Amino acid sequence: SSGINAEYGDGSSESPISTAINFIQKLAGHNPLPPKEKFTINEMIIALKPYLTQKLGEDVNAVALLQLTGDNGGQCLIDFKTQTMVANPSSCHPDVTIEMSVDTLLSMIDDRESLMDVYKSGRIKIEGDLEAAWRLQKLF
Predict the structure, then answer these.
(1) For residue 5, how far is the Cα from the chain centroid?
(2) pLDDT digits (tens, 9 = 90+) for 76-97
(3) Helices (H), the chain
(4) Separation of alpha carbons 78 and 33, rounded Å
(5) What are the C-alpha distances in Å from 43 to residues 16, 25, 68, 125?
(6) Is residue 3 predicted with pLDDT exceeding 50?
(7) CA distances from 11 to 7, 37, 47, 106 (A)
(8) How far apart are CA 121 and CA 115, in angstroms?
(9) Which one of 27, 120, 121, 138 is most buried, by most CB atoms within 10 A?
């Protein structure tokens, strides 16, 4: 993990997305907690919102479209410049588009793989500003 929370959030060692998914699971009140694959794009946006800080926005300084394929897939437009997120936008003009499966995203959240690992293996497709894509590693 890149330790973003130590710089941007609550000081824990989990990534914002991992923390957000754990939060979603706790809100659901399930015991035991459901598998991480059970989150929706809207739930992810709600849980990630506190981590979309002005500092992170300045560091990333891009508009990114995250396209998740597979179960619970969908699109999430993240505008780091204005610290806003939209689920399944009707139209958008991102600086970078990142497409991957939900399983690939989860492997990065769990620190089993890095963005570079999944990029090298061909399980992620990046279009647009590659530098912006690498700056997005702060989320994982």
Answers:
(1) 14
(2) 899 999 988 888 888 889 999 9
(3) 4-8, 16-28, 41-48, 54-60, 102-109, 115-120, 130-135
(4) 27
(5) 13, 10, 14, 24
(6) no
(7) 7, 25, 16, 21
(8) 10
(9) 138
Give pLDDT, residue 116. Answer: 82
Looking at this protein, which amino acid is placed at residue 102?
Answer: V
Report d(CA 116, CA 97) in Å as an integer: 16
Tokens of 105: 């995203």
pLDDT > 70? residue 53: yes
Q: Is 106 strand, coil or helix?
A: helix
How does 10-23 read in b/e, with b if 16+ C-beta sit within 10 Å? eeeebbbbbbbbbb
Tokens read off for 89:
């936008």
pLDDT at 31 over 50: no
| Sign of the CA dihedral running 131, 133, 138, 140 | negative
- DSSP 8-class letter at 71: T
d(CA 132, CA 140): 14
12 or 92, greater pLDDT: 92
